[in-house]
Amino acid sequence: MSIINQQTRGVFTLFKKEVLRFWSVAFQTIASPVITALLYLLIFSHVLEGRVQVYDDVPYTAFLIPGLIMMSLLQNSFANTSSSLVQSKVMGNIIFVLLTPLTYLQFFLAFLGASIIRGLVVGLSIYLVAIWFVDLPIVHIGWVVMFAILGSALLGTFGIIAGIWSDRFDQMAAFQNFVIMPLTFLSGVFYSIHSLPSIWQTISKFNPFFYMIDGFRYGFFGKSDISPWVSLVVVTTFLAILVVLSLKMLKSGYKLRG
Amino acid sequence: MTIPAIQIEKIHKRFGSLHALKGLDLTVNQGEFFGLLGPNGAGKSTLINILAGLLRPSAGKAAIMGHDVVNDYQAARMALGVVPQELVFDPFFNVREMLRFQAGYFGRGKENDAWVDEIIEALGLADKAHTNMRRLSGGMKRRALIAQALVHKPPVIVLDEPTAGVDVELRQLMWEFIRKLNREGHTIILTTHYLEEAEALCSRVAMMKQGEIVALDTTANLLSKFAAKNLRIRLSEGSLPSSLLPMLKHGEDSVFTLALTELNQVEFALSELRKANAEIEDMQLIEVDLEDVFISLVGST
């Protein structure tokens, strides 16, 4: 067996294990976020339909769905890497991976790949359920797919950083509650930032989540608060920064190898 | 000359102000059954973790089958199987799945499945192959850990206190299994608290204390270097005469253990006791074991 084959098989096995890990508890990792998103959809569309109109010819419920899809996708990509890492650190079974010849880059790619899959599966599930109830066009499928992948990659990477840094479950939960949740809720999932007072509009522009959701929404409606190209540049830049940071952590063995 | 299974040169490890390993040198040859003994905190696990790549040495070098554990870590880890001390497990998968994943990390695929089944069989895990790791008893988890270290057929196997908290039956089974691996050509490095375990299994042992090796020799040599035998006597009447005090190793109530350097000292001890009008209720000649050697080198644990 050639070295290349052997290396590919190693990284693919870890990727597969990480996918099967969330798949084996799909009720919690897929079904539960889909139901949560649908509840948001039900409540918000019931309360706000007809009262809020963001774009002229887009009903509020349709406007809301891409935001909800992106929100769930981001949260679940983050949860996949961070909870897997924290759990295997707390349980101690992380050593089974650390004892192998897998390089830090292979480790990164396998974990990241699985988190992207989780994000996409959750996002796609919400979409497939939602289109039963709401007429939802997709104007530019390419932008939709690109922002879905970039968004889940970004949060998957962030989850790797949080998972390596956290020694306990409550520390990881702090990331979720004090970083991910506020940034998602203040990013325009439920509204257009143009409906905000100008000071909040300015603040929102420092929130990377805003660009992921706005760019994603552009793919559906061909309309957005800012140009999707700007969003693409911001999201890619941010992703690159996090990838470099997490690779540095992994390469140094920070909190994994003493 | 063949490459040593393990070559450690001047390894240091510091954790802040703690100097856990103080310039260790150690060579273990291929095919050896080697014991690493020492009290808690002696540095055994630190040393093993450096070999396994879980810790990085502060200074010095270590190599497995000639592959440096830092610079050539992929080849080094391919050659090494580690059975960790803690009963760690992945709660999401069953025994067979977990073993196949582990083999996959080492680049092994379907062609390796027969070997995985063979290990499962040999370790008595066949009934549990489809049981989730979470549901296994402690003893079964221990077996699964050993299986996990073997999936990639490593020439060198390190077992970090494999029999801690294991019942007698399983301990015998594990001893037999590890002996078989050694006979088949695997190099075994065993750390243990149980001296009789090292005595029964290892052909050579290193004793560690506070980050240093204080004794390194064949088990037989270490044993013969120290007093040949112990004489244990129980007195029903009288007390130990002062002429025997220099030989006294241990005394409690009316039971005394005397260290003999030569066997004819038995005669001397008995005549002194007779002179002192002490009455012997029971007496035993006891072989020195590694524990005696250990205590005299390392101090009481």
Overall geometry of chain A comes to: elongated
Which class best fits the helix and strand makeup of chain B?
A: alpha/beta
CATH superfamily of the largest domain in chain B: P-loop containing nucleotide triphosphate hydrolases
Number of strands of chain B: 14
Total domain count of chain A: 1
Beta-strand content estimate of chain A: under 5%
Mean pLDDT of chain A, rounded to whole units? 92
Calculate the mean pLDDT score of chain B and round it: 89
Report on this model:
By secondary structure, chain A is mainly α. Chain A contains ten helices and no strands. Chain A has helices spanning 3-23, 26-48, 60-91, 95-98, 104-130, 141-165, 169-185, 198-204, 208-221, 228-252. In chain A, helix 1 crosses helix 5 (104-130). In chain A, 45% of the residues are buried. Chain B has two domains: 6-224, P-loop containing nucleotide triphosphate hydrolases (Rossmann fold, 3-Layer(aba) Sandwich); 227-298, 2-Layer Sandwich (Alpha-Beta Plaits), CATH 3.30.70. Chain B is built from ten helices and 14 strands. In chain B, the strands form three sheets. Chain B has a six-stranded mixed sheet with strand order 6-7-8-3-9-10, sandwiched between helices. In chain B, strands 2-1-4-5 form a four-stranded antiparallel sheet. Chain B has a four-stranded antiparallel sheet with strand order 12-13-11-14, covered by helices on one side. In chain B, helix 3 crosses helix 4 (113-122). Chain B is elongated and about 75 Å long. The mean pLDDT of chain B is 89. Chains A and B meet through helix 1 and helix 4 of A and helix 2 and helix 3 of B.
